[in-house]
Amino acid sequence: MSVTDWYAHKSLGEGLYWIQEKFFESSNRANIWLLRGSHQDVVIDTGLGLRSLPDYINSKGLLGDDPQRKNPLLAIATHAHFDHSGGLHQFQQVGVHSAEVDALANGDNFETVTWLSDREIVQAPWPGWRARQYRVKAVQPTHILQEGDVINLGDRQLTVLHMPGHSRGSICLHDGDNKMLFSGDVVYDGAMIDWLPTSQVSDYISSCERLVGLVDSEQVDQVMPGHYHTFGAKQLHRIASGYIDKAGTCPARFSTFAWRTLAGLALRASNTRGIC
């Protein structure tokens, strides 16, 4: 399968593109965002990495042909989980929060939560491909991100907001001038996952309180999430406040404990298999 077959994209205007892996049909399929700036372009999350994302971007001319633009494309993972970080190794410049640098540098497929099944890939990227072969390839980040860091694209800036809970290094990227939030898996319009081995409910509650604060202070109009569709400030407030209300209840705490135990066992089993 060619690179151009594997991906699809849609322009959302003002230098923003929404890219998806067409043949990864799963709730785990992550949104890939390409954001162009006057001096620097950035890819936010990179999918599985089964086909070359840079080749697709270049083949479709999404970066233009301005000879003055010399900065290599910067790929940032909102967190290290496999569906967001699998393609990072394809880029010269890679950014991730400091809490998850080691997971990527070591190719730690436990912390990257690498579980993928054949049924999720409805057309193989190459003959003989099998999900049991899949691993997140080790990559050494060039940009170690922290709370408050500003990624300067020239005509727009992205501020790093460390929002742990889903994972220890989860971040959002906030375009304050345009009131746009790239939220990764911190928040999307679906069931929020707080039961993975490196998830932490108390951190997630604090992060959701912060999201509510962003809405209340009118700093967000549009959310570009890690999964599913985009949504606005009212929905962001509803999702974040709903999580806060529910997460501290006894049934929620018991469910989280049970799922975390099962997830840990499943991940250890799947990531001690031999690679064929």
End-to-end Cα distance, whole Å, is 21 Å
Query: Class by helix and strand content?
Result: alpha/beta
SSE series: HEEEEHEHEHEEEEEHEEHH
Count the E strands. 13
Which stretches of 5+ consecutive residues score pLDDT under 50?
Answer: none
Number of helices: 7
Mean pLDDT: 91
Q: Name the helicity range.
A: 25-40%
Lateral strand order in the biggest sheet: 1-2-3-4-5-6-7
Largest beta-sheet characterization: 7 strands, mixed
Proportion of β residues?
15-25%
Q: Give the overall shape, derived from the CA principal axes.
A: globular
Radius of gyration: 18 Å
Domain Metallo-beta-lactamase: 29-227
Organism: Oncorhynchus kisutch
Protein name: Metallo-beta-lactamase domain containing 2
Features of the shown structure:
single chain; 276 residues; alpha/beta; seven-stranded mixed beta sheet; 7 helices; 20% strand; Metallo-B-lactamas; Metallo-beta-lactamase domain containing 2
Short structural description:
With 276 residues, this protein is an alpha/beta fold.
Task: Walk me through this protein's architecture.
With 276 residues, this protein is an alpha/beta fold. Helix content is 26%, strand content 20%. The protein has helices spanning 3-6, 53-59, 82-85, 101-105, 201-216, 233-247, 250-270; strands at 7-13, 16-21, 32-35, 42-44, 74-76, 93-97, 143-145, 150-152, 157-162, 171-175, 180-184, 222-225, 231-232. Strand 12 and strand 13 (231-232) form a beta hairpin. Helix 5 runs antiparallel to helix 6 (233-247). This is Metallo-beta-lactamase domain containing 2.
